[in-house]
Design brief:
Strand content: 15-25%
Strand order of the largest sheet: 4-3-5
Structural class: alpha+beta
Radius of gyration: 17 Å
Shape: flat
Order of helices and strands: HHHEEEEHEH
Number of helices: 5
Largest sheet: 3 strands, mixed
Length: 123
């Protein structure tokens, strides 16, 4: 896939984000760099970057799609009350049952759901 000014800006914004922004949030951040970019262009570039495996998506409990540029092995914790997605940096283990069945796992996505510390303290 060819590089473009818009695609590079979308990727740079995403890779420099500590959160897991939605397309609308990414659009607002990219507009600071390229004021005339359209929301459609941001969505198109996010789709292409995802199709190429350069970024990943995480769906929150309210069904919003969040994007992530960090492809390091990690798992996610999603608070079911405030919808904050937190990266947990530990290597997810692949169950040996896949090897026993003759499968080769290339990647996995693990999300734990529950209440974050802040929401637990406010119960």
């Amino acid at each position: 896939m060819r590089s473009s000014k818009q695609r590079d800006a979308v990727l740079n914004v995403l890779q420099s984000s500590c959160d897991h922004p939605t397309a609308d949030v990414i659009y607002e951040r990219v507009k600071e760099i390229i004021p005339n970019i359209s929301l459609g262009t941001v969505y198109r570039n996010l789709g292409q970057l995802h199709d190429e495996g350069i970024i990943t998506v995480v769906e929150s409990s309210d069904k919003k799609v969040h994007y992530e540029g960090n492809l390091e092995d990690h798992i996610h914790f999603l608070c079911k009350k405030c919808d904050v997605i937190t990266d947990v940096f530990c290597k997810p283990e692949t169950p040996s049952v896949f090897n026993e069945m003759g499968y080769e796992v290339e990647k996995q996505k693990t999300v734990y759901y529950g209440l974050c510390k802040a929401c637990r303290n406010n119960i």
